[in-house]
Design brief:
The radius of gyration is 39 Å and the shape is elongated. It contains 16 helices and seven strands. Strands 1-2-3 form a three-stranded antiparallel β-sheet. With 445 residues, the protein is mainly α. Helix 8 packs across helix 9, helix 9 packs parallel to helix 12 and helix 15 crosses helix 16.
Amino acid sequence: MAIRLELHTEDPEEIAFIQRYWATDEDGAFIEKVNELVPFREITQGGAIAAFVRQRCTAYDQNQPCKTCGAPIEISSRSEFRKQPPVRAFAMCKACQQAALALRQEQEIAAAAELAVRLAEYAEALNDQTCDYRALGDDLALVVLALEAAITPRLTTGTFSVKDCEALCAGDAGPYVQRLLEAGVLMERPLEAEAGTYYLKDDSLWIRRAQAVYALAPDPNLGSANSVLEVVSNRELTDGHALAQLWLDYAVQDVMHYFMSECHTYNHELSAEELLDIQSSFRSALGTYSVAQLWSVAWRVVRDAASLANRTYYNREKAAATLPGKVRRHMEKVDREAAPLRAWARREEHPAGTLGMVFWELFEIDENTTGADALLMFSRIGLQAEVPACEAALLAPATELMQAAVAENRVPEILLEFAALIGGGVSVPEAIRSIRENHPALGGK
């Protein structure tokens, strides 16, 4: 018999009944059907037999050896019995299961202890992290201001996750948080994250970024977080190139968020490579056109693809694959024919985000500002930054000269001479130097 029985009753009738239940022929088929075994005592339904037998007997299927120790596997009903031994053992007996469970629990406890040690070390190392906010780039400063508006007051008083930053921009705020993290503006708070955020893999500490908890890194020279925000808010913006790139990053994300919502409406699924191609086309177009104008392009090409999907020999997948080419060709046609582009209004469910608000407050640019105007404005910021430096170099000598001229009552004479030198092509510093040399009473040597 392929089934070994371990009886827990001494009642002869029960033993006979159990043996009838498990009895098989030479081919491994059960000799009696379950419904032929009833009635037996109080059992009148076949469905109650298996429970009755389990209480009075433990059955082992000798055709199912344990993959660990080779002992037969315990079975609880006929449906678990195998007529023939398997080619390869795949199950474990209860003893081996319990041993494996104990070992797994032991390993989990050891891994948890190791993770706790590594996390404590990692958190201690992060405690030394600081940030010099006076040296922060202009683009990162704007992101800090936008983040503060998105999660106030948590940026200065507590911790937050990427999910908390949804109001920062249209679409995914993760890339902006990552920028601040890489620049040292934000620091991780591993001991405050939920369980499972950090884990060990290949003896290294890994993190699930979506669950990570962050805080604003301190500035050792500024003290409180409010002082940090005051410095960031009151800084003079001089890096027009960095600001222009941040605007393009924000603008293309604004366009792509609208584009993806349209694709979702028509069930267009695109690969990562196709999305990068489309994003590149939109970013290039944002050097000329506004975000609102490119929304109209997104609207048109997505609907063209949806219409194409209904044609013979096409489907949704093939139609979606045409979108990168449609965007590129549409923009080429607009550029070539100088055709006007309509501007779409911002949808209520598609807010500009706090970063968009910062751009408006500081530069009065938004989705309706053409790329040409925005980039021209940012280019002037770089030029304006050079003027104060030149003026600072001239401030002291020019002030000294005019004060001496006033003291000598010779202001008109000095101004006329200065104008003549400038008119003759002499630079301002050279003109000041020449006047002082020609008039020793004014401080010349």
